[in-house]
Automatic annotation (TrEMBL):
Principal subcellular localization: membrane
Residue ranges of the TM segments: 36-56, 68-85, 97-121, 133-152, 159-176, 204-227, 261-285, 327-351, 434-455, 461-482, 489-507, 513-532, 539-561, 581-601, 608-631, 643-669
Annotated keywords: Cell inner membrane, Cell membrane, Membrane, Transmembrane, Transmembrane helix, Transport
Protein name from the UniProt record: C4-dicarboxylate ABC transporter permease
Domain TRAP C4-dicarboxylate transport system permease DctM subunit, residue spans: 147-601
Function, as annotated: Part of the tripartite ATP-independent periplasmic (TRAP) transport system.
Lineage: Bacteria, Pseudomonadati, Pseudomonadota, Alphaproteobacteria, Hyphomicrobiales
NCBIfam families listed in its UniProt record: TRAP_fused
GO cellular component, one term: plasma membrane
Membrane topology recorded in Swiss-Prot or TrEMBL: Multi-pass membrane protein
Compartment(s) of residence: Cell inner membrane
Origin species: Pseudorhizobium pelagicum
PANTHER family reported for this sequence: BLL3936 PROTEIN (PTHR43849)
Matches recorded under Pfam families: DctM
GO molecular function, one term: transmembrane transporter activity
């Protein structure tokens, strides 16, 4: 029925995409402001972008001052643009004596208090600060306490309750350590000692998390905004449509390829979902896909933006700091995991399209790629230069500086898609909008990290997890031959399972960046105790944290896609999770076969190809089992064999892979026999 509907050309409406993003992404949904307040907020946002652009190109300030200026802007603006409760989103409040410019005196007081508390530490002379660490003054304790309170409230407004609650639990643990049970007991810290550690040292609020956001992440987000505005996003979508649109279920495959390309310049799951989805979701529905499935495809695809090099959200830059590795090492390691993510979704989308008889896009519905490049080729220059500078070994923020500069030049001088001064202003403003929620979250995560370093609770949690995993492994090991899994491998396996579950649960309530930092602080050392390389452990916890964006009950990307598709959010989330099941296996593969990440110490090409081929086949067979189709519809007896063979194939060991392939041979024979009887073009 819908196959006869003509699909309109996929022309990206950037204004509409911004409206959709503000509608579905709570982290950039500002309350309505009176005209004067809106102008003030807009000017402050632009000033924040200009500050970061200038320092990236002409020299960063001292570490504490740079982070302090960033955080003072972030917290001050949050109290101006995020209301105390959801009722504040209805309409602009009228200006009055108790509401200057339509914003309550309470919010003004919080904003001013936040700025004063944040900027107190950067202006303490270094010699004096070194003396006061461990011996804080009354002013330090009072202002530090104020900063903790306003930071928790700013995070609650911009991100939600879960992260502040986690931070409060950790602070409570630090103070009441003597009352904790068993191994969790510790001497405890006074309120003054806690504030001293969180406020005056670089291991708390002003720590790595805030530093990475202020030094790296902001610049690349701003670059992504400018790159999209000058037309690079449209060019990516045209390329995706030309590559994938002609095949069965065309718009769904365009969604996958478009999200993969768009993920190169945007590390946000929700931003990818609404930008690419504004075009692909309606096209999928017109093609005949159900509304929940159309939304799920876009959500599952767009989640990959956070693991797609070269930007990868904030993760790549955090890994630089945590692991002390070059940026090039991180993005090379991300190549195969990102490929497996999109391949896993593509397999299920293809099988679904074949099962339901979807057509591809016609020549008239597809873009003219030659014309697209003729129109938008200058937009590729900033990205090429940015990647080139990164690969040359220069700092990421300098690469972002030149990328943004070239975006501006292209926007000013490209006659086919010229940016006006107003659009430049909007780009600077919108780039800073993304920094507010992530900045508050990063500073709040600093509280969690600070408590971990103050109390040593990370090692205690690691001990509990590994001990529990060893006990489970010992019990399970009695039921299987020792030749299959040794005690150490079983212990690692169950540690990974528990860690993955915690990553997903944590990610359901807090942003991916915050989730990664917490798990990298607590869970990654646990894996390190079992012999896992640091880069492998960090990729494992990050990969699983990303899955939370498509894991109900809090699947932000899936719910945004559901809103755009007019579908049931929970059903869309469940379908997106099912589409992502194939890639759930991938982190286990690169833990047991680190060669899959290309940069590990024991990398060999033989191990890489065994793991890569096994993982690819395993994801394919699992996708066939979940979709109920391969070459023809799968029979009931085929699904268990496909699932079992998929699990054995992804085990990065030749013997298990051969056993897995042998198990699937009857299924392949029956599928090819059925295909020859009722051929259908692949």
């Amino acid at each position: 029925m819908a196959d006869g509907d003509k699909i309109a050309p996929m022309e990206l409406d950037e204004a509409k995409a911004r409206e959709l993003e503000e509608q579905f992404d709570s982290e950039i949904r500002f309350r309505p402001l009176a005209p004067m307040a809106a102008r003030i907020v807009g000017t402050l946002l632009v000033a924040l972008s200009v500050f970061h652009y200038y320092t990236a190109g002409f020299g960063l300030l001292s570490e504490m001052l740079h982070r302090g200026i960033h955080l003072s802007f972030v917290l001050g603006l949050i109290f101006l643009v995020f209301p105390f409760s959801k009722t504040g989103y209805s309409e602009p409040a009228r200006a009055s004596l108790i509401r200057p410019l339509g914003i309550s005196l309470f919010d003004w007081a919080l904003a001013i208090g936040a700025v004063v508390a944040v900027m107190h530490v950067p202006f303490i002379p270094l010699d004096d600060l070194a003396f006061r660490v461990g011996n804080p003054t009354t002013t330090d304790v009072v202002l530090g306490g104020i900063l903790v309170l306003v930071l928790l409230e700013a995070t609650r407004r911009s991100v939600g309750w879960p992260l502040p609650i986690i931070a409060i639990c950790f602070m409570t643990y630090s103070i009441y350590g003597p009352s904790m049970p068993g191994i969790l007991v510790h001497p405890g810290a006074s309120f003054s000692q806690l504030i001293n550690h969180l406020y005056l040292t670089s291991q708390g609020i002003y720590g790595i998390a805030l530093g990475v956001v202020a030094t790296y992440v902001f610049h690349f987000v701003l670059f992504g905004v400018f790159a999209t505005r000058i037309g690079l996003g449209q060019l990516f979508l045209d390329c995706a449509a030309w590559v994938a649109g002609r095949y069965a279920g065309g718009p769904a495959k365009v969604s996958i390829f478009g999200s993969a390309l768009f993920g190169m310049i945007s590390g946000s799951s929700v931003a990818n979902t609404v930008t690419v989805g504004s075009l692909t979701i309606p096209a999928m529905i017109r093609m005949g896909y159900s509304r929940p499935f159309a939304g799920a495809v876009e959500a599952a695809s767009s989640t990959g933006g956070q693991i797609t090099p070269p930007i990868m959200g904030a993760a790549a830059f955090l890994m630089i700091e945590f692991l002390n590795l070059p940026y090039t090492t991180i993005i090379i390691a991300a190549i195969v995991p990102a490929f497996m993510h999109f391949f896993g979704v593509l397999v299920q989308v293809h099988f679904e399209a074949k099962r339901t008889g979807m057509r591809g896009m016609t020549k008239e519905e597809m873009p003219d790629l030659k014309e697209a490049f003729k129109r938008d080729w200058p937009t590729v220059i900033p990205l090429v230069v940015l990647v080139g500078i990164l690969l040359s070994g220069y700092t990421p923020y300098l690469a972002a500086f030149w990328g943004i500069t070239l975006c501006v030049l292209v926007g000013l001088f490209n006659p086919r898609r010229r940016m006006s001064p107003a659009e430049m202003f909007d780009s600077l403003r919108d780039g800073a909008k993304y920094a507010l929620a992530v900045g508050a979250a990063a500073a709040t995560v600093g509280i969690v990290v600070g408590v971990v370093t103050l109390t040593g609770v990370g090692f205690k949690i690691s001990y509990i997890v590994t001990t529990t995993a060893a006990e489970i492994a010992a019990f399970i090991g009695t039921f299987m031959p020792a030749a299959w899994f040794g005690p150490q491998a079983l212990t690692l396996l169950f540690t990974l399972i528990m860690t993955g579950i915690v990553c997903i649960l944590m990610g359901c309530g807090i942003p991916t960046t915050a989730n990664y930092i917490i798990m990298a602080t607590i869970a990654a050392p646990t894996l390190g105790m079992l012999g896992v390389e640091p880069i492998v452990a960090h990729f494992f916890v990050f990969y699983y944290g990303v899955l939370a964006d498509i894991t109900p009950p809090v699947a932000l990307a899936a719910y945004a896609a559901a809103g755009m598709a007019g579908a049931d959010p929970f059903k869309t989330g469940n379908t997106a999770f099912r589409l992502g099941l194939g890639k759930i296996l991938v982190p286990f593969v690169f833990v047991f076969s680190p060669s899959l990440l290309l940069v590990t110490a024991d990398f060999t090409w033989s191990n890489f190809f065994i793991a890569f081929i096994g993982c690819t086949l395993g994801i394919t067979f699992l996708g066939a089992a979940l979709s109920g189709f391969m070459l023809v519809r799968t029979a009931a007896w085929e699904k268990p064999l496909l699932i079992l063979s998929a699990i054995l194939l992804v085990v990065p060991e030749l013997t298990s892979s051969l056993i897995g392939f042998a198990l699937v041979l009857p299924v392949l024979y029956r599928q090819f026999s059925g295909y020859r009887a009722t051929p259908a073009a692949l």
